[in-house]
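Q: I'm building a small set of examples for a reading group on sequence design. Run inverse folding on the following structure and report the sequence directly after it, with nothing in between.
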């Protein structure tokens, strides 16, 4: 079942200047997030990610198109209907957005009081959640007395108090160091696996996508330019913007001047071999080996997403049979002759 379903969604803001064009923050987006999935929405600053989140949680109406959450069309919904949809969505923010004047317990209690939950039930839920996020001993601390990672764990617990089915996390690790990021990502994974929540993470960090997400949508200029399973998109990124993001994890295949520089440094013929699952790499290595050429690995890297690995190696082939070896492998899938 789809938890979030966007069809041809547009969001325009008025032109910033009197003679300017309206800002098309979201420009014809189709996006489906299935129940139980962790879906990453990736894009550079200004791509439209936060606007998309505000459309999904009903903080702003779409200019046109359909926004469905758990099957309910939220465009044009009245205040009461919208509140019902919103109570099923938890939000986690980059800057935690905790009340500094309230204790951890008080921060978790606030949304429950607003929702009219009875005191005993409030007590039970808060205590369970504080145990779940590993902060039972901090119930009476104030946010200022906590580390960034602990604050974000409180933020996640608070988002879960109303027992939502969907969690929206907007750059929720961008203010944290790498170790704390890992801790928060592990907690989000438990929220997904143990509590069964669907999670949408907005991020520009590919480490986060790699560690957490099942599926990815890449946004650029208000559009989704690429979408798919994380392992597949990482192994074979199609859009330029996706390639740039993936290259932050693994060096890209050399191009243009880089090839000439590499060849000047290492010599021989250069080929790049794709290491994605199901590629022809073992055939390539066998054929190259059979030609008795001098083989050097001169660039590349392998990465792991879930059970799949992807990446590439650039090989320099040298010796009398180098041209014949290149000719033998040139037509195989995943092989690129560079020089
Ligand atoms: N309330 C608003 N009024 C006018 N323009 C807006 C408004 N909100 C966003 N925009 C514009 O819409 C575009 C998309 O912005 P948005 O914040 O959704 O991008 P983003 O991908 O989330 O970027 P960031 O990571 O920097 O938050 C930008 O050009 C932005 O200036």
């Amino acid at each position: 079942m789809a938890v979030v379903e966007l069809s041809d969604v547009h969001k325009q803001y008025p032109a910033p200047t009197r003679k300017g064009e309206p800002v098309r923050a979201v420009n014809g987006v189709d996006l489906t997030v299935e129940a139980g999935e962790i879906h990453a929405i990736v894009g550079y600053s200004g791509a439209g990610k936060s606007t998309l989140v505000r459309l999904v949680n009903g903080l702003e109406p779409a200019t046109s198109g359909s926004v469905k959450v758990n099957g309910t069309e939220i465009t044009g919904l009245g205040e009461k209907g919208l509140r019902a949809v919103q109570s099923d969505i938890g939000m986690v923010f980059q800057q935690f957005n905790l009340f500094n004047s309230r204790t951890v317990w008080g921060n978790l209690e606030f949304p429950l009081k607003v929702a009219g939950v009875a005191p005993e039930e409030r007590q039970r839920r808060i205590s369970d959640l504080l145990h779940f996020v590993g902060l039972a001993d901090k119930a009476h601390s104030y946010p200022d007395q906590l580390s960034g990672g602990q604050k974000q764990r409180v933020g996640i617990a608070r988002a879960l108090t109303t027992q939502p089915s969907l969690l929206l996390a907007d750059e929720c690790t961008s203010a944290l160091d790498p170790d704390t990021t890992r801790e928060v990502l592990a907690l989000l994974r438990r929220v997904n696996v143990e509590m069964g929540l669907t999670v949408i993470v907005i991020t520009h960090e590919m480490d986060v996508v790699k560690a957490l997400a099942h599926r990815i949508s890449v946004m650029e200029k208000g559009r989704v330019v690429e979408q798919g399973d994380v392992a597949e998109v990482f192994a074979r990124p199609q859009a330029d913007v996706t390639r740039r993001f993936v290259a932050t994890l693994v060096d890209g295949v050399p191009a243009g001047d880089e090839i000439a520089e590499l060849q000047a440094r290492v010599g021989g013929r250069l080929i790049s071999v794709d290491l994605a699952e199901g590629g022809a790499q073992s055939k390539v290595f066998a054929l190259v080996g059979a030609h008795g050429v001098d083989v050097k690995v001169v660039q590349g890297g392998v990465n792991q997403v879930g059970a799949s690995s992807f990446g590439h190696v650039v090989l320099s082939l040298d010796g009398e049979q180098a041209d014949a070896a290149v000719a033998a492998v040139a037509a195989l899938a995943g092989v690129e002759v560079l020089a």
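The pocket of adenosine-5'-triphosphate is lined by residues 13, 23, 25, 43, 45-51 (CB under 6 Å).
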